[in-house]
Amino acid sequence: VLELAERVRDDAAAALRQAERALQHAEDQARQISGYRSETQLRWQAQFRQGAAITLVHCYQDFVNRLHGAEAHGDAGVAAARQRCEAARAALQSAELRLASVDRLRQRREALLQLGLERRDQRQTDEAAARASQRERHDTLHMGAPQAADDAAAA
Fold first, then answer.
1. N or C: fewer beta carbons within 10 Å in the chain?
2. Are 2 and 103 in contact (CB under 8 A)?
3. Which of the four pLDDT bands, split at 50, 70 and 90, describes residue 88?
4. What one-character DSSP code corresponds to residue 83?
5. Model-level pTM?
């Protein structure tokens, strides 16, 4: 169970790293599109200062509209990538909590097992001491009487 929880956590961490890379890529693309739009506007504005035909102005407006659409699409991609990143971060956090819970349970079980072993060892030690004490009393009672008779006969 612990290994499974670790694997789930590792997979969630990998998914988060992938989502963060995708977010970075989407942000880079959005910045490129925005930069391109800004450069294009500056270039066209310089062109318009020198004068331009109306058909050229219409072409420019169509192109700028497409660039705005691309920017909006890029911004939506960034927002979606951000949401995926947050979902992956939440999944990782959940997997880490699960792993911590499983590990605490494992530690408690090990502690209980160790406590049981210690109690068993203590019980065996106590029983051995009780048997030794009982043998000693038995030996003292049974061996002590003939010894006393031998001591009286020798005197």
1. C
2. yes
3. very high
4. H
5. 0.66
Gap between the Cα atoms of 91 and 19, Å rounded: 12
- What does the H/E/C string look like for 15-60? HHHHHHHHHHHHHHHHHHHHHHHHHHHHHHHHHHHCCCCHHHHHHH
Q: To which H or E segment does residue 155 belong?
A: none
Q: List, for residues 21-39, the tens digit of each pLDDT value.
A: 999 999 999 999 999 999 9
CB 95 within 8 A of CB 7: no
pLDDT of residue 31: 95
Which has more pLDDT, 45 or 148?
45
φ and ψ of 70, to 5 deg: -65, -40
**Contacts by residues 3-10 (CB-CB < 8 Å, ≥ 24 positions apart):** 5/95, 5/98, 5/99, 5/102, 5/103, 6/99, 8/95, 8/98, 8/99, 9/92, 9/95, 9/96, 9/98, 9/99
Q: Which amino acid, 41? A: Q
